[in-house]
Amino acid sequence: MNSTMPAVSKTRSFSTVFLIEMWERFGYYGMQALIIYYMVQRLDFQDTPANLTWSAAAALIYVSPAIGGWVGDKFFGTRHTMLLGAIVLAVGYALMVVPARSSMFLFVALGVIVVGNGLFKANAGNLVRKIYEGDDAKIDSAFTIYYMAVNIGSTFSMLLTPVIKNYFNAPFHGQLTWLLGSNAQGMFGHGLGWHMAFAVCCVGLLVGLANYAVMRHTLDFIGSDPDHQPMQWWKLGAVLMGGIVVVLVSTIILKYGTIAKIFVYAAGAFVLLVFGYLITKSELREKPGLIIALVLVVETVFFFIFYQQMSTSLNLFALRNVDPVFNLFGLKLWTWDPAQFQALNPIWIFILSPILAIIYTHYAKRDRDLSIAAKFALGFLAVAIGFFIYGAANHFTTAPGMTSQWTMVWGYGFGSLGELLTSGLGLAFVARYVPARMGGFMMGAYFVASGVAQYLGGIVASFASVPDRITAFLHDQAVTVTPAIQKEIPGVLGMKLGDFRDWMAGSSDAVKIAAASHVPAYSALPQATRQLVQQFNDQLNVVTMPYYTHLFFWLGVAGVVCTVIALAVLPLMRKLDAQHAAHARLDPAVEGMPTVATER
Q1: Assign residue 197 a region: left if phi > 0, alpha if psi is -120 to 50, beta otherwise?
Q2: Residue 595 has pLDDT above 50, yes or no
Q3: Is there a common fold for 8-255 and 256-466+545-600?
Q4: Listed residue (54, 161, 42) closest to 109, CA to CA
Q5: Which CATH class for the 8-255 domain?
Q6: Residue 8: how many CB atoms within 10 A of its CB?
Q7: How far apart are CA 298 and CA 277, in angstroms?
Q8: Segments making up each domain of the chain, as ranges
Q9: Cα–Cα nearest to 82, from 147, 126, 129, 22
Q10: How far apart are alpha carbons 190 and 168 in whole angstroms?
Q11: What counts of helices (H) and strands (E) characterise the chain?
Q12: Mean pLDDT across the stretch 40-55?
């Protein structure tokens, strides 16, 4: 750090990064809450393509910081790269504001978000590390607070963007006429709510950038070497040109599923080869730590397969088979949009984080703290319990085929506990067990492995893909009113499942759906016919429920298997840990970098 650094407190410098991180996560998770629904309900994707497209994008988003970290540290500057990443992210969300019902336009927008995330994420975390460089006593607490920025931003955006989407997608009944006058009518009931919600994500980034502009002086003397040199515009041009190439490559990967699979599997094989090479070529004293890191990276991959279900299969399950009304002892509390259930994850993180911190401190004082490997085992057990709760959803119904919202609350609770015990430890095991000279490379490998897991999670979620057409369900024994529907309102049987639900709900597209299917508006049907259609809908709910509960049950079983495997390797891990500690005492160079928290 420059010896002429002015008297700017570390807390103020940290606050600058904390706030832009909070707003960046606000934008990202606001988009994530809606992206699967946007593809299925707005762009007419079927479940499997939607799951795989988003999972491929998530994989790229996780992989990109491995490159962005190098760009910031060695080429363009940590601070400069973080700022550029935030600007690119704002552009990506702005592209999603454009009301273009085009999958290719979506792929391009997601490609821009991939680039922005890659430039931003690794460098924001690196700035926090640089602010407290040499102050190991504070770095862990700083990253713990920094992790809260993730959850603050994600909680509010996941609760807000579905509300914005619904507000503007509703038919016009005088909304905002006080502000927009006669122009207000054109904004409602035409599917623009999706893009208004994405606009909120973009505004979040702009607020973060405005805040950074005001507080940027607190970071003037923080950053990597290129940050302290005069701006070299050719470097900015090179980063932007590289970003354009990444956008084009990302767009191709998202458009063509086969290329996405090749990319993901090749990345996974690369990580394994890297680990194998390093373990083979490393010195004897370094091998135990590297083997431990490899085992824990593999376990992390399995965790992220479970984690990816939140934005894919669990999200679609909430849309189709979860009662959105919160009741407690017969008293109605509130109603949630299905997309808002994802906010339960950061809410539970808020609740559980201090509890775990107290428990860790209590046992650490008594020299009885669990090893990272043991915490991973407990994390898998918690995840398994969460999925078993989802798998039992058909036993906690409030209507035919509709499970209680409390199923989601408790399922997310155990899943979030599992996250804190596994992903919440994050890069700590890399920092602890990998030699410092390999640390940066290994952290990149960790992000690549996590990205691979995101795509694998999408493949797993696709096992619960619900057929697109109502005709696929008509021969199920639970659907008994098909002849009556055929007689009363036959056009219903030819609808897509999503269109049928939108038609019943009187959504913005209901008039078009009714015209295309040659049926009246649902509200115009005789009461007896509406009751028949509602009964038909209830029976369809009963049919779709097992698609999800079967997957969730087997994911619970997989969680138990992961727990058993993690417990089985514990003796080996303890032995390797003891060898690693013995070598570290003899040669401090074996120790890795300072342990830090990671983030989602």
Answers
A1: alpha
A2: no
A3: yes
A4: 54
A5: mainly alpha
A6: 15
A7: 16
A8: 8-255, 256-466+545-600, 470-543
A9: 126
A10: 8
A11: 21, 4
A12: 93
Q: What is the enclosing helix (H) or strand (E) of 328?
A: strand 325-328
- Out of 257-266, 351-360, 550-559, give the one with best mean pLDDT: 550-559
Write out the H or E segment, with its range, that includes residue 535. helix 527-568
Average pLDDT score over residue span 542-561: 96
pLDDT tens digit sequence for 328-347: 877 888 889 999 999 999 99
Cα angle: 136, vertex 129, 157; to 5 degrees: 120
The mean per-residue pLDDT over the stretch 225-247 comes to: 90
Among 219, 161, 207, smallest CA distance to 31 is for: 161
Q: Distances in Å between the alpha carbon of 391 and those of 129, 194, 199, 408, 487?
A: 41, 31, 36, 11, 36
Per-residue pLDDT, 146: 76
pLDDT digits (tens, 9 = 90+) for 176-205: 888 888 888 888 888 899 999 999 999 999
- Residue 251's SS3 state is helix
Contact 349, 416 (CB under 8 A): yes
Which residues does residue 403 pair with via DSSP β-bridges, in sequence order?
322, 397
d(CA 270, CA 262): 12
Query: Above 80 in pLDDT, residue 476?
Result: yes
CB neighbours of residue 542 within 10 Å: 20
Output the CATH code of domain 256-466+545-600: 1.20.1250.20
> Token match 């939140």: residue?
310
The CA-CA-CA angle for residues 436, 439, 443, to 5°, reads 165
**Structure token pair of residue 241:** 């040109």
User: 509 CB contacts (<8 Å, ≥6 apart)?
Assistant: 191, 499, 502
How high does pLDDT run on average in the chain?
Answer: 86
Residue 439, CA distances (Å) to 278, 427, 445, 595 in order: 12, 10, 10, 11
Structure-block tokens of residue 553: 């049950």
- Token pair, residue 308, equals 């990816």
Distances (CA, A) of 429 to 74, 292, 393, 540, 559: 24, 8, 36, 47, 21
Q: How confident is the model at residue 596 (pLDDT cuts 50, 70, 90)?
A: very low
The model's pLDDT over 59-87, given as tens digits with 9 standing for 90+, comes to 999 888 888 888 888 888 889 999 999 99
Amino acid in position 245: V
Contact 346, 269 (CB under 8 A): no
Which pLDDT belongs to residue 594? Answer: 41
What is the rounded average pLDDT of the residues 168-172? 86
Phi first, then psi: what are they for 203, rounded to 5°? -60, -40
Where in 248-311 does DSSP place strands (E)? none
Helix 233-255 with 103-131: angle, nearest 10 deg = 130
CA pair distance 519, 11, nearest whole angstrom: 63
pLDDT top residue among 139 and 547:
547
CB-based contact 194:169 (threshold 8 Å)? yes
Beta bridge partners of 331: 328
Q: What percentage of the chain exceeds 90 in pLDDT?
A: 50
Torsion angle of alpha carbons 296, 384, 455, 106, nearest 10°?
-130
458 within 8 A of 55, measured Cβ to Cβ: yes
